[in-house]
Amino acid sequence: MGYRTVIGLEIHMQLATQSKIFCGCPVIDSGDYPLNTVICPVCLGLPGSLPSLNEKAVLFGVMLALATDCHINETSIFYRKHYFYPDLPKGYQITQYKKGLANNGKLFIDSHSSSKMIRIRQIHLEEDAGKIIHESDVDRSLIDYNRCGVPLVELVTEPDIESSQQAVDFVRKLRQIGLYLKICRGNMEKGNIRVDANISIILDSGQKSPRIELKNLNSPRYMKKALDYEAERLSRALFNVEEIISETRLFDQNENITKPMRSKEKDDDYRYLPEPNIPPIEIDSTLLDKARGAIPEMPDSKIERFTVEYGISEADAAILCNTPSVAEYFENAASATPRAVITTANLVLREIFSIANREGVDFDEISEAIPAKKLGQLSRVLHEGKITRNKAEIVLLEIFKNGGEIEEIIDRMEVRTITDLNVLQKAIEEVLYSNRTLVERYNCGEEKLKGFFIGEVMKKTAGRANPKAIIRLIENQINKMENR
């Protein structure tokens, strides 16, 4: 029996402020400091400690709300959300509840070659909890409170998402926005972004399953697997008339299945109470103007500009604009060689990314080793035909590993394109005369053999022949042989 999927997301994004949301302890990534060393009485919820709101966290939240076309509430309120977990030392979390920072927004994602709007119900601020560390070799768990109090912005969507792929696309788009706004580091493996997904299915007959919450999905790949598994599980249960419990489940990455975690809580279970120690947030025109002024050119606008200004395909522009660091690197390189912009884009998309993948380094590391200005210089040399694309990657790899100047490396490694026509002509004659049978087949219509001849000439010249130049020379030589 067919079914359709109904998904809503709750996305928690750690804000990249210098200090935590209610105290002066620094914000760090998981694992950067020894356990339980970046804490204070406020983090630990000790008696007598009082929270003090971080204004930068509010600014970052407003920036995200503006970037997702939300309505900013003039007043928003913090509450105490009560639940008892070892990683929550106060016994409650300070969060915003029904009157959050903003609501009624939207974000567009690409779905099946068209644009789909996902409505955003609410954006609100809250504090992060600690981290429970389960030790596999002993029957115990440890708690690291370093993460307590790290500022979070939570974005809640309406149940507009219809597939696991759309859910992945939405999270990736939101991560991209966070990186462009510079409000989040965006590393899901380190917990900078964590996702809870609510899923239900509706059979073609109209029968609907209860809503299931999938907790702490920390990568797009595992989120897709978890949602796909749960949709199939729910559809089988409905079809077989089995009982489905509305519950919270976890995804087991080893078995690729979801498992029950606990029964699904309701708002009454949390006993929300207004936080008496933090006054309501008042969003005035000054803060709004500051937030608007801090928003840079966003990815959708940048993609459109790249296609118009540089003549790059929309697909290539989307890859270049996926992260702000890559887009900035490309533009800096392109400005050094404005006549070879397409060549520069291809070098980034192919050679730079290829080296990064092969060497197992991230983009920031490779862009530091190969400055944008040098890439622009190499782009000009390649555009002028002084080296071939294969040799360009060799030069880039040498710069990455040992540094150096473009022209010096080209001469030292003997990768400059051969321009001596006599040398090229000799190589072509050797290839064609040693493959007379193939030349005859080519003359009989086997056009694909031209690629073979080009490849053989490239081998004889150690890849230093310009393919465009030798094509004409090969054709001329074949005509001469045919007329003899």
Please identify the structural class as seen in this structure. alpha+beta
Backbone CA Rg: 29 Å
Q: How many helical elements?
A: 18
Work out the strand percent.
15-25%
Span between termini: 72 Å
Please list the strands of the largest sheet in the order they lie side by side.
2-6-7-10-1-11-12-13-14
Q: How many distinct beta strands? A: 16
Q: What shape does the CA trace take?
A: elongated
> What is the average of the pLDDT values?
90
Explain the overall architecture.
There is one protein chain. The protein has helices at residues 41-44, 55-67, 164-181, 220-239, 267-270, 285-294, 299-309, 314-320, 324-336, 341-359, 363-369, 372-383, 389-402, 406-412, 421-433, 436-443, 449-460, 467-483, and strands at 3-14, 71-72, 75-76, 78-82, 92-96, 102-111, 114-127, 131-135, 140-144, 151-157, 193-203, 212-217, 247-252, 257-263, 273-274, 281-282. It has three domains: 3-286, no CATH class; 297-412, no CATH class; 421-483, Arc Repressor Mutant, subunit A. It is 43% helix and 21% strand. It has 484 residues and is of the alpha+beta class. It contains 18 helices and 16 strands. The longest helix has 20 residues, at 220-239. A nine-stranded mixed β-sheet has the order 2-6-7-10-1-11-12-13-14. It has a three-stranded antiparallel β-sheet with strand order 5-4-15, with no helix packed on it. A two-stranded antiparallel ribbon has the order 3-16.
